[in-house]
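Supplementary notes for students who missed Thursday's class. We covered one full example, reproduced here. Read the sequence, then the structure, then the short commentary at the end.
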Amino acid sequence: MFFELIASFVAGLGAAGLVLALDRLTGRHIPRWIMPAAAGLAMVGYAIWSEYSWAPRTVAGLPDGVVEVERIEERKPWKPWTYAVPQATRLLAVDAGGAATHPAAPGLRLVTLYAFARWHPTRAIPQLVDCGRGARADVSDAALADPSTAAWRPLERGDGLLAAVCVTTAD
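Structure (token representation):
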């Protein structure tokens, strides 16, 4: 967050410097209010770009085997432009490449679900995924010992978690 604040200031200074250079080249014919206006617009523009590019930059930085399964977009009243184009503020990704199976339960996968949120630390959430039933459950010692005791939650047929984790399952 601190680096983005510094980058915003640098964008403002850069825009002010461009206006200053143009003012000198035109023989000082540019109105004085243009420089602070350009600096302010550059800072706001950078902040908006940074907010909207956060999700694609985060996904691009994921390691091999970690797949985005859901992108949550929001509209905020203090950011009126999000009503025209909603902003992605949270992402869910799964480590599909690191999915573990057990010979006694071939339809079950043990995976790590990663929850990314803007300005918050990443959370790793262990999940059990039942590819045959199309359901998921939070991992606990009891659920690992006996998956039938887990609190299973059904997933929609086209859910990204099922698609990413159960691609090789013919259950």
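Commentary. The longest helix spans residues 34-60. The chain has two domains: 2-61, 87-165. If anything here is unclear, bring it to office hours.
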